[in-house]
Design goal:
Low-confidence stretches of chain A: none
Number of helices of chain A: 3
Order of helices and strands of chain B: EEEEHHHHHEEHHHHHHEEEHHHH
Largest interface: A-B, 31 and 43 residues
Oligomer: heterodimer
Strand content of chain B: 5-15%
Strand order of the largest sheet of chain B: 1-2-3-4
Strand order of the largest sheet of chain A: 1-2-5-4-3
Helix content of chain A: 10-25%
Helix content of chain B: 40-55%
Radius of gyration of chain A: 16 Å
Low-confidence stretches of chain B: none
Number of strands of chain B: 9
Largest sheet of chain B: 4 strands, antiparallel
Structural class of chain B: alpha+beta
Radius of gyration of chain B: 21 Å
Strand content of chain A: 25-35%
Mean pLDDT of chain A: 86
Shape of chain A: elongated
Shape of chain B: globular
Number of strands of chain A: 7
Mean pLDDT of chain B: 88
């Protein structure tokens, strides 16, 4: 599928999506509510076939959080980047771990490092951080800890 | 976690493997639920070597952060550095001299062989064969010596920097690499005689830890782990970087999807890497080994993503820049993290003794997973 065809499909699936070109890959900005159904279509639509979620990133922009999903199709070799803005005080988004299994661990990491709540995640617990770290999110920009100094 | 241990209400036994266990190759902690000898669940507990490298990088400049990345996948440190350097160069739109490009690929492939050698020795030792470990380390030692001469370090080299490489190659480099190629060619058949053809070894590997191609992609597996299931995923072939598109080598694919297939992929990959070394070692162009760069690097505002093929799979560097001298956010997509997530899936329903074979062929490096 060419970039224009992908743009068209996205616009049909989520009319409110904002599509941005110019970077290496196509960037699509959507609302959290539209994510789950779009994700399902991206993976299972035969012409899109985005079956490989190769990078899941959360970014703290101080005013809001952004979830970034890098997608690739092993069939057509096309790429797509989905960006979803979340409320920093109450970040909530639906899990996609049932669509791409790799999301399960990546979402657990985003949960502990940034405090993002993944709705319907099968096992949302700390993965890397030790017990008792719930509620403190070390990768956020305003995190300070005198003992566990991670800011150089 | 301690209260989970012991016998559950259903009569299952919950045991710990690690964090200090020779088969986990580092500080990985697995909580395994067993019914008799059959595995019901494997649950990894991470973080024993978590240093928050991503956060550290946010306060390091584009020259400094390379040094931390060697400490992630320490067996592929050149390739980690390479990814970071390429990503910074993408942001700066910097052309690097041909000499540096060839040197980079040479050290990358040497690293890949060294990494696979270590994996091969350690993996055979996990399954009870002690001798292969010494054979593998005998050859690997030569690579470490080459690295020591040229880069000054044997493990965390920090040799590849934005703009090229840190220093020119040592005058002995070409001679020693040629010697190594010869040595490897004469010893590689020994590996097959010693381990691959061994019937006990084959019985322990074949059919163990089956991973289907669909699951490999869904779990985000890359590298030899996915290629053992027949998934095309070699970044050097699919999205070539540096000079890989001009080189003759094959992407190794196996179709069985079991531990033995993953084993064969790595073993054959070493020979492909030697092929690359042979093509380049006599063709290192003359010239500069580093492009002229400013003392302080500033990436323009924007996002840059670079993926490379490490010994373990697809390694990605995602830099979000706000135009400053340090990145606003860096994400490292580590191959080990995704490969570990599939462990429960492939070892469930198998025997406890087979867990070592499944885990060994995923080639996990724990600092790469924890970051």
């Amino acid at each position: 599928m060419t970039t224009d065809e992908i743009k068209l499909s996205i616009a049909t699936l989520v009319p409110a999506a904002v599509i941005e070109e110019g970077g290496e890959w196509l960037n699509v900005f959507i609302e959290p509510a539209a994510w789950k159904s779009l994700a399902f279509q991206l993976k299972h639509n035969k012409e899109l076939s985005f079956d490989f979620l190769f990078c899941v990133t959360c970014v703290d922009w101080k005013t809001h959080l952004t979830m970034v999903y890098h997608l690739n199709s092993t069939v057509f070799r096309h790429h797509l980047v989905i960006k979803i803005k979340l409320d920093r005080n109450d970040p909530k988004i639906e899990t996609v771990s049932d669509i791409w299994r790799t999301a399960e661990f990546n979402e657990r990491e985003a949960y502990e490092m940034f405090g993002v709540q993944f709705i319907d995640h099968p096992d949302l617990r700390l993965l890397i951080l030790p017990d008792g770290w719930e509620g403190r999110n070390p990768m956020r920009k305003d995190f300070e800890d005198a003992v566990n100094m991670i800011k150089l | 976690m301690v209260e989970e241990l012991g016998t559950t209400t259903e009569g299952d036994l919950v045991i710990n493997i690690g964090p200090q266990h020779p088969a986990t190759h580092g500080v990985l902690h697995l909580v395994v639920t067993l019914n008799g000898e059959t595995i019901k669940k494997v649950e990894p507990h991470l973080g024993y070597i978590h240093r928050s490298i991503e956060k550290m990088c946010e306060s390091l400049t584009y020259r400094q952060f390379i040094y931390v990345t060697s400490r992630m996948d320490y067996l592929s440190s050149h390739i980690n550095n390479h990814a970071c350097a390429l990503c910074v160069e993408k942001g700066l739109q910097l052309e690097i001299p041909p000499r540096a490009q060839v040197i980079r690929v040479l050290v990358d492939e040497l690293t890949r062989i060294a990494s696979h050698e270590l994996w091969w020795g350690a993996m055979a030792m996990d399954l009870g064969a002690f001798t292969p470990f010494f054979h593998a380390f005998r050859e690997r030692e030569n690579i470490n010596d080459i690295m020591e001469e040229t880069c000054g370090a044997r493990l965390t080299m920090n040799y590849i920097v934005p703009g090229g490489v840190m220093a020119d190659i040592h005058p002995n480099f070409q001679k020693r690499v040629k010697n190594f190629i010869q040595l490897f060619r004469s010893k590689a058949d020994e590996y097959d005689e010693l381990v691959t053809g061994n019937i006990i070894f084959q019985n322990r590997m074949k059919g163990v830890g089956y991973l289907s191609p669909e699951d490999a992609v869904s779990y985000g597996c890359t590298g030899p782990t996915a290629r053992g299931s027949g998934v095309h995923c070699d970044i050097r072939k699919l999205y070539p970087y540096e000079i890989y598109n001009t080189l003759q080598f094959d992407e190794i694919l196996e179709s069985a999807g079991d531990s033995f297939a993953r084993y064969m992929v790595r073993l054959r990959e070493m020979r492909e890497s030697v092929k690359i070394l042979e093509q380049l070692i006599d063709n290192i162009p003359e010239g500069e080994f580093q492009a002229k760069t400013k003392a302080v690097l500033k990436l323009p505002k924007g996002e840059f993503y670079q993926r490379v093929e490490t010994a373990r799979g697809e390694f990605g560097v995602y830099i979000i820049s706000e135009g400053a001298t340090t990145p606003y956010r860096i994400k490292f997509r580590s191959p080990g993290f995704a490969n570990l997530s599939v462990l429960n899936h492939i070892s469930k329903g198998g025997k406890l003794g087979d867990l070592v074979a499944s885990m060994g062929t995923l080639d996990l490096v724990i600092p790469d997973i924890d970051r």
